[in-house]
Amino acid sequence: MRSLIAALLLGSALAMPAVAQEAKPTANLSAPVKTFGRVSYDARSLMVDGKRLVVWGGEFHPFRLPSPDLWRDILQKMKASGYNSVALYFDWGYHSPKQGVYDFSGIRDIDRLLTMAEEEGLYVITRAGPYVNAELSRGGFPGWLVNQRARARTDDPDYLKAADEWLSRINPIIAKHQINADPKRRYGVILHQIENELALTTPAQRRYMDHLYAKARADGISVPLFHNDQGRNGYWVPDSSKVDKVVHGPNDMYAFDGYPGGTCTVEGKPTRDVAAPDWGYYGPGGAKGGASASPDTPGFLAEFGGGWFDYWGSNGGYECNAIQRGKRFQRVFYGTNLANGIGIQSFYMSYGGTSWGWLPAPVVFTSYDYGSAISEPRVLRDKAMEMKALGGLIASVPELAGMIPAGQPVISSPNIQIYHNKSPETDARFLMVTHKPSNGQTNDAFSFTADLPDGHYTVPMQLNGFDAKWLVAGVTLNGQRLVYSTSELQSSQDGVMLLYGRAGEPGETVLRYATAPKVTVLEGQVSSAFDAAKGDLKLGYTHQGRAIVRIEGGDRPPLTLIVADEAEGAHYWRQGDALVRGPALVRSAVATGGTLALTGDTDGADGLEVWAPKAVRAISWNGAKVATKVGASGSLIATQALSGPAEFALPALTDWRMAKGSPEADPAFDDSAWQAVDRRSYAPTTIRPDGQPNMSMDAYGFHDGDVWYRGRFTGTPDTKALSLFYGAGGAGLVQAWVDGQFIGEAETSNGVPRPITTGTARFALPASAQSGAHVLSVMVRNNGHNWDLDSDDFHKEARGLISASLEDGPSGRSFAVPIEWKIQGKQGGETLPDPVRGPANNGGLYGERMGWHLPGFDDKAWDKVSVPAAQADAGTSWYRTSFALNVPKGQDATIGLSFGDASKPRSPVRYRVLIFVNGWNMGQFIAHVGPQRTFPIPEGILHHRGKNHIALAVTSDGQPGDALESVRLITLHTVKGGLPVQMVAAPNAPSDLKETK
Fold first, then answer.
1. What's the rounded Cα separation, in Å, for the pair 510 and 501?
2. CA of 552: how far to CAs of 134, 579, 671, 677, in Å?
3. 488 has which bridge partners?
4. Dihedral of the CA atoms 135, 137, 141, 145 (nearest 10)?
5. Do residues 370 and 320 lie in contact, with contact meaning Cβ atoms separated by under 8 Å?
6. pLDDT in tens, 561-573
7. Hey, how many other C-beta atoms are within 10 angstroms of the C-beta on 759?
8. Structure pTM?
């Protein structure tokens, strides 16, 4: 403490006092309350049943976790990590393989998902499109919509008819789960988004927005409606806004998104070059100032960066992203938002998951981990522990909702800024302390002086490195009066308060009493002094491990005050009226008849300590009674540590069988059932050479994955080369044969965040092609359709072949010889033989059409081979094996499949693999592109206590060494606990597939 005081004296001698952040009149604090059933709002905050609410939410995509029992796992982890709401995108194309056909069962059961969210105590923000973006193929539009010539996201009648088809099905499900639907419902849908990042604002878009608003209301959605404005343009602002240069819309509330904070370097190093922006009370104002575009509605960030996506050919950025937008970033940036009056925040993503099958847009690969608080294998990252602490403060201090600027404290250091807000109803204060600018990284000892609700105070503080502190003052918490604290509040419950700070830093807490209370230090070292004139009890300490103080008397209820450093604070879980210390996760706490039933996870031999109401006399953990003793602080302490997970072995993957999988390259292959390429209507935005047939795969009902073309021609002296123009997404592929002879392959771009998704390729033909009859075979792998982020129909860029030209040479004629083409993609096209796994699961490889990917396929006639393979033929070869798992009962795990040297983002050899686990397409590994080499497989897709089957479709150019590397199972996450998970029922054998024509 002496060193701190000396630093303060030195700082005051060298620097003039600084002022805090100065607010500007960007919000209309006299705006009337707008009411939508039980949900209402004014300029200050959202309200539910008249009570102000800070919406502290996170994004979760159920379609990126195809094991519905695990949806509850994510929701419970979000709730335990401090979130009070969840935002949910719904992917139109995920539910609709064909116009007029919709599925909301199994892995698409939105009713079940919304029920889970209610049961887990989360408010819900629904985002149903029609367009969602979300780095999905087509931005979430269904494949069949690509063939519609009507411009999407306008008032074109054909597009509106298609959109209404979707909305008429999804909107009633959402309406059913609104908080307005049942007066007794505590949680449910409170906000609904009608469009996402609509960047064009012509009259056609305004009429479209009017239509979407009216449709939502007609379908029974009665909560406030909003649109998410991409990057604070002031687009689609409620009519009440009189701000210059905004674009008005029919929506009730204005919301926007933002991903500030910089990015990691290509070497995988975090950067701190960008300060947190002021997009509200303390910002510049105006149409492009964020919340200031709509002064009558509360600040609303429908998306704020909780990570960032990664692209084909990168060095692998998710772990760095988790740091870039992780600990400290969350405090600085999310806290700046809250201080700016942005009381509705949803962090994108909070669980990213897996873009399995053909879900991903060209800008991402299979993993959508995003660097989010919950990793793709469902592990709580360190940043989730920080979110838990911040969310605990929000839950403990309801007055944080609806605060307004309170005036400027005086700060002793020019390196520091303080946002100072207050509750107009109670005068409670929020002081967000950070550097000036907020990305500063100096170590500063300083003080601030302010008129707080309980008096005029000078408060000593320390702020080291990139950081922010969320302080409250003048708040009454369960009968206790907190005058101020330089520690941060994590939890306040009846009789127990938890404060925390940075390890080694001094702290000071002042509580108000009528008379001198009795102070007993139960753990650690804490000094105390009582100022009888003010009634202030001042406690001093250093944050190091844990200290516990018992305070009694002074005309207040007894208080157990826990002071922790950050690492210690991470062990605590706030569950209802209970505060629990110890386990890796506490999922729930339910008191019944004197017993508190806890559920959760342990990752080792974890202790257990519980502070609970006096009526609780016994504890159970995951259904088993726990022997306890009463601690000095009145807690119940387990007499033995909770047991952790048992070790279990994973089998080696052996007994591989292989079959060649490109029979379409054989000129004798029977393609009589294939569709003929013709001159049907052409919908793509890609300009093709004049007079050519429509070769686009989508035109023939093939929207995802691989598509095959077979062309017949009669050779002439001009047929010396084949030139192809093709669309294939990011890191897409084209391979070509003539008369069964492989003539080459080409790929679309990778290694850049926004790849060019069409390409050209030119292959020399053998001399034999210059006379007689010949057969061309071409396979195109479509790695996703583009998004429609700019509302320009970019999702309609052509996929598959766009044109094919037989030509003499560089100086000769193109299209010199006619070709008669046929096309074949996914079996059944839009009529799915496997509707359970759905449209994203399969493309048009021969093995997929024959059911080779299914677990019940009989591969006994296939060749026995070893893996890694020494050599592969050009084209696709299929490898299959089976294995059994025996994960201990009562244990949760995530097991992944890993290829080659997982420590490197790329291989020295060229090949790619489609990964089928028990029939589910769980992603694509591209060895020479990367960066993903390990693929998590969720339980429910993987049988943790039984037999499993893997089928790998390996595509190679046939060059020496370009063959399958080693393949192994790896445990990515294991805890004792978890939730019961059932296998997702799906077709097992080819005979189980529906017949298609």
1. 15
2. 53, 20, 87, 85
3. 500
4. 160
5. no
6. 999 999 999 999 9
7. 19
8. 0.97
